[in-house]
Amino acid sequence: HWTMEEFIGKEIARIRAICGSTGRVIGAVSGGVDSTVAAKLMHEAIGDRFHAIMVDNGVLRLNEGKQVHEMLNNDLGVNLTVVDASDLFLSRLDGIDDPEQKRKIIGNTFINVFEAEAAKIEAAAAEEAQNGDAQGEKKKGRVEWLLQGTLYPDVIESISFKGPSATIKTHHNVGGLLKDMKLKLIEPLRELFKDEVRALGRLLNIPAPLVQRHPFPGPGLAIRILGPVTREQVRILQQADAIYIEEIRRAGLYDQIAQAFAVLLPVRAVGVMGDKRTYEQVIALRAVQSEDFMTADWYVFPPEVLRRISSRITNEVAGVNRVTYDISSKPPATVEWL
Ligand code: XMP
C-alpha cells in the first residue's frame, strides 16, 4: 500500500531517471483533469524541458482556449503553447454531418497540427543545442518523449477487450491519436483511477474547479451539433452551453453532476415573438450522474433551475426559441447524442 505523497515522489524520480538531465518531453493538453495533472507532474519533474501543446480546434467550449492558457501557464507555471487552429478545423468541418466523419476530420487535423508544432519545438531545441560547443551538448534538448495521460482503466480496456462504446462508435481522444509519432511514451498516470488522479491534482495544488471539471470529448462541440457543422452552429451551441454551465454552477449543483452539456438539435420549431411567428432552432440539455460513464442516470434538476436556464437561453441566444431536457439514461441511450 502506498500514499499519494509517496506516489508523487516515486513518479518524479522515475520521470527524471527516464529523461536524464537533458531530454525533452512534449505532450498535448486539453484543459481536462488528466492531461492537466500529467502536465503539472512533468513540470514538477523536469520544469521547462516539458512542453505542453494545446490545440484550439474551434469546437471547444466558449473561451476555453483562453482559460486553459491562463490556468496552465500563469497559475501552474507549465511551459505551454496554445495553437489557434480553429480556422483550419472549422473549414475542414464546414457542412459535415456524419458523426464518424466529424471525428475523423478532427482526429486527423489534430495530428497534423500537433506534429507541426512538435517539429517547431524540436527545431528550436536543436538550434539551442547547436549553440552549445561541447560535443556532448549536441544531444541536449532532443525531444524524445511524448507524455500520455493514460489512466489505469484505459490500460485495462486496451489490453483486454474493446469496450462496448468503442465498438459502437469510435472514441477519439487527444492522447490516443499520437501513438504513431516516433516518440517514446511516458505515462505517469497509468496506475491510477480517476478519483486518484483528482487526489493527485489536489496535492499538486491544481485549483479545485479544475480538478472537479466535467469531462469533455476530444471531438468537442462537433459531436453535439447534430446536423452539419457551421461557424454559426458553433456560435449558438457555445453560447447556450456557457449559460447552462454558468447556471448550474450558480445553483451550486456542478459537483453533484458527472457531466452536463447542451446539444444543438437538427430541427426547427415554431415559436412566437411579439406578434410574429418564429421558426428557430432547439437546444437539448443533458446532465447525468455516473461513476464510470459505462452507465449513467439522467439528473433530476430542481424545476426553478431548469426554468431559469431555459428562459436565459431563449432570451440570450439568437436563433433558439425552444429548450428541451433529455431524460434518458445509459443504457439504452449513451451520454453523448452522437
Ligand atoms: P458515451 O456517449 O459513449 O460517453 O456514453 C461516455 C463518455 O465518453 C465521452 N465521449 C468521448 N470522449 N472522444 C472522447 O474523448 C469521443 O469521441 C467521445 N465520445 C464520447 C463522453 O463525453 C462521456 O464522458
Topology record:
Elements (H helix, E strand, L loop, with lengths): L3 H16 L4 E5 L4 H14 L3 E7 L7 H12 L4 E5 L1 H8 L5 H33 L11 E5 L4 H9 L3 H5 L15 E3 L7 H10 L4 H4 L19 H20 L8 E15 L2 E14 L7 E2 L4 H14 L3 E6 L13
Parallel strand pairs: 1-2, 1-4, 2-3, 4-5, 7-9
Antiparallel strand pairs: 6-7, 7-8
Helix pairs in contact: 1-2, 2-8, 4-5, 10-11
The protein binds xanthosine-5'-monophosphate.
Per DSSP E runs of 2 or more residues, the count of β-strands stands at: 9
Percentage of residues in DSSP E strands: 15-25%
Order of helices and strands: HEHEHEHHEHHEHHHEEEHE
Please, what is the average pLDDT?
91
Helix/strand-derived class?
Answer: alpha/beta
Low-confidence stretches are none
| Helix coverage percent | 40-55%
- For the biggest β-sheet, the strand order reads 3-2-1-4-5
Distance between the termini: 41 Å
Shape: globular
Q: Report the biggest beta sheet as strand number plus sense, adding barrel if it closes.
A: 5 strands, parallel
| Radius of gyration, in angstroms, nearest whole number | 21 Å
Number of helices: 11
Molecules bound to protein: xanthosine-5'-monophosphate
Pathway: Purine metabolism; GMP biosynthesis; GMP from XMP (L-Gln route): step 1/1
Subunit structure: Homodimer. Also forms a small population of homotetramers.
EC number: 6.3.5.2
GO molecular function: ATP binding; GMP synthase activity
